[in-house]
Amino acid sequence: MTREQLKERVRRLPMQPGVYMHKDKSGTVIYVGKAKLLRNRVANYFQPPERLNAKTRQLVSHIDTFDIIVTDSEFEALVLENQMIKKYQPKYNILLKDDKGYPFIRLDTTQDYPRFSVVSQPAEDGARYFGPYMGRKAARSAIDTISEALQLATCQRSFPRDIGKDRPCLNQHLGRCCAPCTGKVSPAEYHALIMQAVSLLEGNAKQLVRDLTEKMNEAAEGLQFERAAVLRDRLRAIKKLGDRQHVVAGSFSELDAIGFVQGQTRACVCVLHYGGGSLQSKEYTLFHLTESDPGEVLGSFVKQYYAQRGAVPKTVLLTHEIEDADTIGEFLASLAGRKVELAIPQRGERRVLTRLAEKNAFEEIERREKQSERRFKSLELLQNVTGMAALPLRLEAYDISNFAGQDTVGSMVVFVEGQPKKSAYRKFKIACAASGQDDYASMREMLTRRVQRYVDGDEKFAPLPSAFMIDGGLGHVRICKEVLDSFGLSVPCFGMVKDDHHRTRALVAPDGREFGISATPALFGLVGRLQEEVHRFAIEYNRKLGGKRVRGSTLDRIPGVGDKRRTELLKHFGSIENIRQASEQELARILPRNTAQSVYEFFHENE
Predict the structure, then answer these.
(1) Contacts by 522-528 with C-beta closer than 8 Å and gap 24+?
(2) At how many degrees (to 10) do helices 325-336 and 294-309 cross?
(3) Which of 76, 286, 575, 580 could form a disulfide with 71 if both were Cys (CB 3.0 to 4.6 A apart)?
(4) 363 and 355 in contact (C-beta within 8 Å)?
(5) pLDDT(251) > 50
(6) How far apart, in whole angstroms, are the C-alpha atoms of residue 404 and residue 605?
């Protein structure tokens, strides 16, 4: 649609709450928003460009049409907006990763000897749930920490079924388990321990310490010295948890302080979780944003974050005012099943908490931007040394790997802005290698298949890189140039040349020009990381395809070479043939002297 057609359509929109979805020419949803009054809200996008910020101008330049969904209330519009963002993942919305997991700890207290387990979400099954935790590792750590302190069973046995069936395991001898397997711990006694664990998970360590201290003193006064000693040891273990309380208290149900900071190239939202009166943990989310309104960022973040997390604290403190705060507060209350306080403190202790959240967000941005500066400096050096016309923001590296001429594979790794982008990695099983080992033919096949997929419009192979980086010398990079020429493409390509010690020493262009990199640490490091990563990826795929053959390989017949050293040799040298050609001194760089000698003698005695 033209701009005038869009404006005319806006004039016919209802003055009702709802959700609007902007689409580009391909029909892809590029932005989802909610409105109290649809006509007024959508009209804001079609003001004169000078009234819009840079981000909105960019969005509007790609709008071809829009759809709306009318709702009965602003709250319904907010809920629907959240669902639509999750469904369409629009390019211009502030998006959180969906794969972030916040597991819970589950406890079924109806069992005679209850056990803790880690689950993804609570269920209506009568069990008790604690959380959410920052990840399964954190939840598992909480269980292990508490179990060790209270001597709870962590083995795979089931009680009372397995009581008396076998002797106690090592944990009992180490003093880490009360050994219910012996039958000496009744269900009532074990339940008492479990309820103490529950107190810790709920952040009530101080109350538990008071209770145990009182029981210990009573036991001592009653001359029950053995029981008093057990309680004393348990108290000591629980007090030690004080330094690790953030591991234990995972149910951050009291207060979150959320800070937003905008840097030069990115923004950061930091969430500080408080429970039991103390800071429990920190989370942060980085955005590539500029000229964004803090209220817009925070509002979008809060809605998505708590919907995804599955648990909302009693109080959420923010550093900036957000649009529709009342509606978002109602949304959070619907998630929590109770009232949630949403506040922007201006002074006092609460303001101290949000300032700390801002400080943490700032520190994270500063750390990332320094890393980013170093990466861009490396890319600038690569551009200057090789004479490329543009900054090489996307680099693709290629390598061939085989095992003694068998299972030949090709690997393609991608670095974007100097960082690996593993979702863009691709691997190739080389067909031409069936007729014999030929690295040049294998490289030609892999590059031809890669470029052909791009030409055919396969999105998994788009875009083309700023430069092709080939693991090999002049012959290999000339193969790359021939492939590109055959498709009529003009993309820089360079070979990553190694010295006699298998270290990258230079880049070589198809016309034979060499560019030294060893004297420039930043550039040497970038190229080295590329070469090491593409080599690792190729070897990993090669081993996967030919794992059984590798286990019965030539290397296994050499004294001192087991799985670990065989892997190190193949990773470093790339093939059996390269290992055969290596000198004893080269082998000794990655192997003990006597093993290097054995490998060298084995190959030279069997030539």
Answers:
(1) 522/374, 522/377, 522/378, 522/381, 523/378, 523/381, 523/382, 523/385, 525/378, 526/375, 526/378, 526/379, 526/381, 526/382, 526/418, 527/382, 527/469, 527/496, 528/503, 528/504
(2) 10
(3) 76
(4) no
(5) no
(6) 18
